Amino acid sequence: MRSSLYFVSVAAVAAGLAAVPGSAQKTNGPKERYEMDVATMSGFAAMAGGGRGGLGGAMGMMFGGDPSSKVAHQLVLRLGSDLPPTAPPPKGDHFFEAQAKLGKSVPLISPERKQGDYQGEFERPKGRLLLYWGCGAKAGPGQPVVIDFAKVAAGQVPPGLFSSAAPVIRTVSQTNSRSYADWPNSKNGKQPGSGSSLLGAHRIASNYGPDINFTLAQDYMQGLSASSAVQGDQSVMLRWNQLPSATGYVAWTIGGMDRGGGGGGDMIWWSSSSTQQFGGGLWDWLPPATVAKLVTQKVVMPPSQTSCQIPAEVKKASGEMMFGNLNAFGPEANFSYPPKPAGNAVWNIDWTAKVRFRSHTMLMIGADFGGMSGGNAGESTPAPAKKKKCKGPLGIPLPEGAC
Prior knowledge:
- Keywords: Signal.
- The protein is mainly beta and 403 residues long.
- The protein contains six helices and 22 strands.
- The longest helix has 9 residues.
- The radius of gyration is 22 Å and the shape is globular.
């Protein structure tokens, strides 16, 4: 469901590092770039105990695992370089301290570069997409915006459908790297368990670049504890705990499930933004400076906010099944080597490393799905009763008991 990915080139990274007011210092590199995405997941998002970020990852993490899990941790590691490997294929290791509970290291391996189109089992969307936005008891003027999936599939994409306020930011990818490796991968993908800590020294060694060493003073963010309550006017009050390290929050819901099994009907999408927002980096990691800008634009809720009212029209259109989501953006740590020289001497950068943090939760709104419709993250709840399977928005299969 992502509209597009906006990759930041190596040149852009170097330019950002060189942006020093009043300085004409030139930079070369970096030769090697590392990116470490760190997430804390609660509610339904914690049940799978890991997975990829973004909306696709959110849908994939919705079900499975241990219902009694309090929180789960998620790491996504990417290492890109302009240098070739000393002996193909590209590979590396991220070495952790013992408190990370990931063993001595996790292996970074290079994924296969696939040619041609990938034919998956994802069904072509049917029906309509109804877009709502804004916190409040009632939906604002001009809502909903109605999108016909049949027209979109035929290439008739309405202008302004996908959010341009917050593009998905990737500084390291297989596309922009001569040599690339990542984790989780086919060799190892087990995410860290409870009690894991990332504080302390980190070392990344590979066969296609210099060693990367840095020390983290920021650990996993706290878990979000979200709950929902239907009000007398049929709006829904969404509440959550304030996280000390959060830079801002964004909430969204998905409703309008297809219970007939045909993949049609209406899909209802609502976001907490004061303007129409669909797709993009709001469901991912974003730099603190970007979040601060989005807060002033009222696209992202400020870090002091702990509630948002979902309009009654959204609840009515969504029916009994509505999935709630809340993303708390967090801090970011940046490292580079060697240190920046004094004066106007050329800065030849060997490597850069970026560590991004967020906390994310998912909950059921307006339905008692096995007792897991909301409440505090980590509450022990019984497994849902087994019923026939059905399909949700865009033909995504839902598990037993969801219909």
